[in-house]
Specification:
With 154 residues, the chain is an all-alpha fold. It has one domain. The radius of gyration is 18 Å and the shape is elongated. Helix content is 75%, strand content 0%. Helix 1 packs across helix 4, helix 2 (12-30) packs antiparallel against helix 6 and helix 3 (37-56) packs antiparallel against helix 5 (73-103). It has helices spanning 3-10, 12-30, 37-56, 58-66, 73-103, 112-140.
Amino acid sequence: MNLTHLHLMINHAPIMGSYLLFLGFGYAVFMKKEHLLRPLMWFYVFTAAATVVVYRTGDPAAEEMKKLPGMSAELIQNHEDVAFIALLLILALGIASFIGIRYFKKEMPVPAWFKYGFLVIAFVSVVTISAAAQIGGNIRHPESQNSFNAENYK
């Protein structure tokens, strides 16, 4: 196993983590389930850590992919650019979660400004990680591209 394999194996953790945590956090906020916020914030910390690993294994994976015939360096670069933005957003959520866990004690409710601000950033991270995933998938799966024509592959 090499870093390319590792990248491909764990790249779904930030994607699924972002989706599930956004939905869970939204549920906890809107249904006033304050007791769920702290565990969800811990999962955001772990998702941020997994995202760092995925991002750090991306460069070695890109170098391996560029060696294959027919690989689009532009598509790989676009994937890297969007993935970097997603990394920053998810890291911000992970850091905010860690600070929230430390600052907002169990006895005190999490302030509304934190919860709603967090949800806005979480939504933007879901959109961004989705874009990074779509572009990344297009690197090896031409059938997922809008311009795919099966006739060209016969």
